[in-house]
C-alpha cells in the first residue's frame, strides 16, 4: 500500500512539474498537500524518492526549499544512503538544484552521479540507467546553453539514446530522437533532422499515453519541413497534428500548432486557411496569457501578408506587435519591427509615417550610416511634400507670366540698345571662356590621373592583402590540421589507453580514491581534446569553407556564447556568393570584435548584425558592457588592440567607427566594399 502511495505522489509531482503555472499560494497549497501524502509512506526507499522528486519540483522556484527536501530524504535513508545508487541520486538531485544558479557546479554533480550510478548492482541497474539518461540529457542541455550545440547532439546520440534503448523505454527514446532532430534543425541540417523526426514518430506511433508527445512531434516535424520548403510533407504533418489537437485542447503547444499551420498555408497561397489558423493561435495564446507567443504569431501573420503583397493588412499586424516589443529589452526586435514598419509605409505611399519609423529605427540602430539614412528620410520628405510644392510652383509660374507680359514691351525697346553691347561682350566672353575651358580640361585630366593612380595603389594594396591573407589562412589551415590530426590523435590514443587501464582497475577492485582520480584524469583529457578541437576550428572554421559566410558567423556567435554572455546574430540581404578572401576577411573582423567583447567588455549581451546593400557590406557589433573612452587614442591602440581591425578595414578601402562611453557599452560599425 505504501509503495502504491509513493508512486501516486511521484505521478502527481510529474504532472505539476510538467504544467504548473499558478500563483505562489497555489504552489504552497500543492506542496503542503503532497508533503502530507509523502509522510504517510512507511517504506524508506519510496519515501526518500518522493522527497527527492519534491526537491526537483522546487528547484525551479526556491532552491533553499529544494535543498531542505534533499536533506530530509538523506535523513530518511540513514545508512542506506551510502549505497552507490542513493549516493548517485543525491548528486543528481543536487545538480538539478544548481542547474540554473551555478551551471559549472551542476555539471560537476552530474558527473559525480554518473560515476556512481553506472556501478550499481543488478537489482537497481534499470532505475539507475533511467537516471543516467536524464543526467546526460541535462548535462548536454547545459552545453547547449554555452553555445555547444554540436556537443549536445553528440551526447544525445552517444549517451542518452543508447541508455534509453538499454532499458526499453520507447517514450524516452522517442523524446530524445526528437531532441536530436530539433537541434539539427536549429543547426540548419534539415535532412538529418527529418530522419530523426521519422524515427521518433515510428516509436510513438499509436501510443495513447503519448498524445502530447506525438502532438509536439508532428508540429516540430512540420516546422522542419517548412524550413526545408518541402510543403507537401509539412502539410501531412500539420494534418496529423490537427487530429491530435482535438484530443489535447489545453496543450501549451496549441498556439504553436496554429502558428506553424498558418505559415504553411501562407506559403502555399491559401490565405483563408492561413488567416484562420493565425487568429485561432492568437486566441489560444491570449487564453494561456503567453505574451511572447502572441507577439510571435502576430509577426508570423505579418510575414505571411507581406509575402503575398497584402501590405495594408501586414501594417496592421505590425502595429499590433509594436506594444509587445516596446516592453522588451531586446533592441534587435525593436529594430526589426521599426524597419519593417518603415518599409510597409513606403510601399503604401505613406511617406510621413515612413519617416517616423525610419527615425525610430535609426535611433535604435545607432549606426554610422546616418548620412545614408538621412538621405532616405529626405527623399521620403520630398515625396510627401511634392503636392504642396507643385501648388507653390504653379502659383509662382502664373505670377511670373503676368510679370513677363508687362515687361515684354520694355524688353523689346531695350533690346535694340543692348544688341551691340551683347555682340561685343560675346566676343570677349568667347575668348575668356576658351581660356577657362582649357584650364578646366587640364585640371580634369590631372584629377583623372590622380584617381587612376589612387585606384592603382588601392588595387596593389588589395593584391598585397589578398596574398598576405592567403598565406596566413594556408598556415592557419596547416596548423589546424596538425593540431587536429596529429596532437588530437595522440591525445585520443592516450585517452583510450587510460580507459583501458580504468577498466582493469574496475576488474581488480583497486582503491576507490585512485579509481576516481583516474576517471578525473580521463575527464580532464576529454576537456583537453575538446579545447584542442575548438582551437583548430577557430584557426580554420570548416563551416566557412563548406557552408558559407552566414553559417560560419552564426556558428562563431554560438560558439562564443556562454552562460554569462549571450550573443545574438542577425543578417539582412546576405548571400552565399561572396569571394573566399572577402569571406575570410569579414569572418576574422567579426571574430576579433567578439574576442575583444568577451575579454574586455564585461557584457552580458552582444548583438552582431551583418547586411549588404548597394554593393556595400555592413558589420555592426554592440554590447551592454562597461564601455571605454573612445577619444583616448592611447587606450584605443594599446588597451583593447583594435589596430589589427583598423588595418584590415583600411586595406579593404572601408570605414571603421567606434561609439563608446564609459559605463554604457560600446558599438563598432564597419562598412566594406565587396571586392572580387
How would you describe this protein?
It is a single chain. This protein is mainly α and 676 residues long. Among the domains are: 386-535; 544-673, Heat Shock Protein 90. Helix content is 77%, strand content 6%. Strands 1-2-3-5-4 form a 5-stranded mixed beta sheet, with helices on one face. β2 and β3 form a beta hairpin. α10 packs antiparallel against α11 and α12 (231-245) runs antiparallel to α13 (254-267). The termini are far apart. Residues 1-22, 367-375 and 633-639 have low confidence and may be disordered. It is an enzyme of class 2 (transferase). It is found in: Cytoplasm. It catalyses: ATP + protein L-histidine = ADP + protein N-phospho-L-histidine.
- Low-confidence segments, given as residue ranges, are 1-22, 367-375, 633-639
The geometry reads as elongated
The mean pLDDT is 77
Distance between the termini: 78 Å
Helix content: over 70%
Beta percentage is: 5-15%
Q: How many beta-strand runs?
A: 5
Main sheet attributes: strand count, strand direction, barrel closure:
5 strands, mixed
Strand order across the largest sheet: 1-2-3-5-4
Q: Structural class of the secondary elements? A: mainly alpha
Count of helical stretches: 26
Radius of gyration: 34 Å
Amino acid at each position: 500500500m505504501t509503495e502504491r502511495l509513493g508512486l501516486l505522489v511521484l505521478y502527481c509531482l510529474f504532472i505539476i512539474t510538467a504544467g504548473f503555472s499558478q500563483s505562489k499560494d497555489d504552489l504552497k497549497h500543492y506542496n503542503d498537500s503532497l508533503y502530507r501524502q509523502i509522510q504517510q509512506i512507511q517504506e524508506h526507499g519510496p519515501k526518500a524518492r518522493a522527497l527527492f522528486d519534491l526537491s526537483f519540483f522546487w528547484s525551479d522556484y526556491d532552491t533553499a526549499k529544494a535543498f531542505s527536501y534533499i536533506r530530509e530524504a538523506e535523513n530518511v535513508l540513514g545508512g542506506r544512503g551510502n549505497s552507490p545508487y542513493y549516493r548517485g541520486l543525491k548528486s543528481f538531485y543536487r545538480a538539478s538544484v544548481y542547474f540554473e544558479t551555478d551551471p559549472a557546479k551542476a555539471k560537476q554533480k552530474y558527473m559525480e552521479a554518473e560515476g556512481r550510478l553506472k556501478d550499481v548492482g543488478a537489482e537497481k541497474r534499470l532505475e539507475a540507467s533511467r537516471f543516467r539518461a536524464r543526467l546526460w540529457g541535462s548535462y548536454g542541455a547545459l552545453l547547449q546553453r554555452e553555445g555547444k550545440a554540436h556537443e549536445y547532439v553528440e551526447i544525445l546520440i552517444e549517451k542518452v539514446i543508447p541508455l534509453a534503448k538499454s532499458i526499453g523505454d520507447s517514450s524516452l527514446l522517442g523524446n530524445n530522437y526528437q531532441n536530436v532532430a530539433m537541434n539539427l534543425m536549429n543547426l540548419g541540417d534539415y535532412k538529418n533532422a527529418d530522419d530523426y523526426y521519422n524515427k521518433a514518430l515510428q516509436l510513438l506511433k499509436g501510443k495513447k499515453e503519448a498524445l502530447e508527445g506525438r502532438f509536439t512531434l508532428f508540429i516540430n516535424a512540420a516546422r522542419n519541413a517548412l524550413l526545408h520548403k518541402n510543403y507537401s510533407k509539412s502539410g501531412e504533418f500539420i494534418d496529423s497534428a490537427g487530429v491530435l489537437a482535438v484530443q489535447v485542447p489545453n496543450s501549451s503547444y496549441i498556439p504553436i500548432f496554429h502558428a506553424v499551420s498558418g505559415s504553411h498555408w501562407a506559403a502555399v497561397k491559401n490565405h483563408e486557411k492561413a488567416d484562420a489558423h493565425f487568429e485561432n493561435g492568437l486566441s489560444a495564446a491570449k487564453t494561456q496569457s503567453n505574451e511572447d507567443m502572441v507577439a510571435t504569431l502576430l509577426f508570423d501573420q505579418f510575414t505571411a501578408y507581406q509575402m503575398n503583397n497584402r501590405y495594408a493588412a501586414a501594417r496592421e499586424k505590425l502595429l499590433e506587435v509594436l506594444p509587445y516589443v516596446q516592453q522588451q529589452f531586446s533592441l534587435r526586435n525593436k529594430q526589426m519591427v521599426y524597419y519593417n514598419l518603415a518599409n510597409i509605409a513606403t510601399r503604401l505611399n505613406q511617406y510621413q509615417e515612413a519617416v517616423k519609423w525610419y527615425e525610430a529605427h535609426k535611433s535604435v540602430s545607432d549606426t554610422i550610416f546616418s548620412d545614408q539614412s538621412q538621405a532616405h528620410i529626405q527623399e521620403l520628405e520630398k515625396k510627401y511634400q511634392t503636392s504642396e510644392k507643385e501648388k507653390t510652383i504653379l502659383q509662382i509660374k502664373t505670377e511670373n507670366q503676368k510679370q513677363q507680359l508687362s515687361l515684354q514691351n520694355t524688353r523689346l525697346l531695350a533690346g535694340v540698345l543692348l544688341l551691340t553691347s551683347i555682340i561685343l561682350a560675346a566676343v570677349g566672353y568667347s575668348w575668356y571662356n576658351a581660356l577657362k575651358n582649357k584650364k578646366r580640361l587640364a585640371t580634369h585630366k590631372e584629377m583623372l590621373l590622380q584617381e587612376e593612380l589612387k585606384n592603382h595603389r588601392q588595387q596593389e594594396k588589395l593584391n598585397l592583402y589578398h596574398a598576405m591573407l592567403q598565406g596566413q589562412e594556408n598556415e592557419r589551415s596547416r596548423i589546424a590540421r596538425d593540431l587536429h590530426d596529429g596532437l588530437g590523435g595522440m591525445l585520443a590514443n592516450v585517452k583510450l589507453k587510460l580507459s583501458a587501464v580504468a577498466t582493469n582497475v574496475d576488474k581488480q577492485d583497486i582503491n576507490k580514491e585512485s579509481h576516481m582520480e583516474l576517471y578525473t584524469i580521463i575527464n580532464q583529457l576529454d576537456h583537453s581534446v575538446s579545447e584542442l578541437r575548438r582551437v583548430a576550428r577557430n584557426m580554420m572554421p570548416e563551416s566557412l569553407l563548406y557552408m558559407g559566410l552566414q553559417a560560419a558567423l552564426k556558428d562563431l556567435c554560438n560558439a562564443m556564447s556562454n552562460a554569462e554572455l549571450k550573443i545574438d546574430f542577425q543578417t539582412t540581404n546576405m548571400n552565399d556568393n561572396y569571394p573566399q578572401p572577402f569571406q575570410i576577411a569579414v569572418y576574422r573582423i567579426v571574430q576579433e570584435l567578439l574576442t575583444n567583447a568577451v575579454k574586455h567588455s564585461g557584457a552580458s549581451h552582444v548583438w552582431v548584425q551583418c547586411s549588404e546593400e548597394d554593393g556595400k557590406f555592413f558589420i555592426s557589433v554592440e554590447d551592454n558592457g562597461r564601455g571605454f573612452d573612445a577619444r583616448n587614442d592611447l587606450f584605443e591602440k594599446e588597451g583593447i588592440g583594435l589596430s589589427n581591425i583598423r588595418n584590415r578595414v583600411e586595406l579593404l578601402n572601408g570605414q571603421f567607427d567606434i561609439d563608446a562611453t564609459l559605463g554604457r557599452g560600446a558599438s563598432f560599425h564597419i562598412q566594406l566594399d565587396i571586392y572580387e
